Amino acid sequence: DQQVKQNSPSLSVQEGRISILNCDYTNSMFDYFLWYKKYPAEGPTFLISISSIKDKNEDGRFTVFLNKSAKHLSLHIVPSQPGDSAVYFCAASLYNQGGKLIFGQGTELSVKP
Amino acid sequence: DTGVSQDPRHKITKRGQNVTFRCDPISEHNRLYWYRQTLGQGPEFLTYFQNEAQLEKSRLLSDRFSAERPKGSFSTLEIQRTEQGDSAMYLCASSPRDYGYTFGSGTRLTVV
To answer: For residues B48 and B55, is the Cβ–Cβ distance under 8 A?
Structure first.
């Protein structure tokens, strides 16, 4: 069973526009959510996170929104830059599970100049 | 601080052979995680250590898989009698606490 889902395998956006990446989850007990970015031949790198007690967290060009009632989170990148082209994974964690993460399948973002 | 180091970066092996991967975490991180990633999927949790204690193993980790972290520093992941379905990227991460992961670049295993 896929507890964390990213239903869009790919997304193409023009440079300077907004990129919106979506993620849905099924387990209402998840208490922490994270976004990772992955370039080819590298491991995932942490981007931004949000606790389940919040509905928004912002860090520079990156904002994560959490809608608990819909079990949905999204990552907004504004403005998008060509260097943002990568695979983005959302991940979720349960409290007191030692930091184990459950990842979605990933969305490949392509930002075109 | 050189980050999380994994060795080798690539491994090609024949079906039925044993392979061993090594992970060197960030030195002050007491937690170490192993994940596996196949094409088109996100990383899947395999196991994790707090210091030298292996605290959880996924059902994905069959009897052919074993992981160790003997002195609470580096870790090894061994796969015995490899199968083609074991072909994947094996990722190691370390953390000083929940959520503060740093991933290594991974070991890509190809079983032929």
So the answer is: yes
| Nearest-by-CA chain B residue for A90 | B42
Higher pLDDT, B61 or B37: B37
Contact A34, A103 (CB under 8 A): no
Name the helix (H) or strand (E) containing A107.
strand A107-112
Mean pLDDT of chain A: 95
pLDDT value, residue B60: 82
Q: What is the pLDDT of residue B97?
A: 77
Q: Strand, coil or helix: what is A88? A: strand
**Are residues A99 and B33, on separate chains, in Cβ contact within 8 Å?**
yes
- Judged against a pLDDT cut of 70, whether residue A10 lies above it is answered with yes
SS3 at position B8: coil
Q: Are A14 and A22 in contact (CB under 8 A)?
A: no
Identify the closest residue of chain B to A50 by CA–CA distance: B99
Residue B98 is given by DSSP the state T
pLDDT surpasses 60 at B1: no
A41, A100, A106 ranked by CB distance to B42: nearest: A106
Name which of B43, B50, B104 is nearest A103 (Cβ-Cβ).
B43
In this complex, do A102 and B45 lie within 8 Å of one another by their Cβ atoms?
Answer: yes
Q: Residue B96's pLDDT is what?
A: 87
Name the residue in chain B with its Cα closest to that of A31. Answer: B99
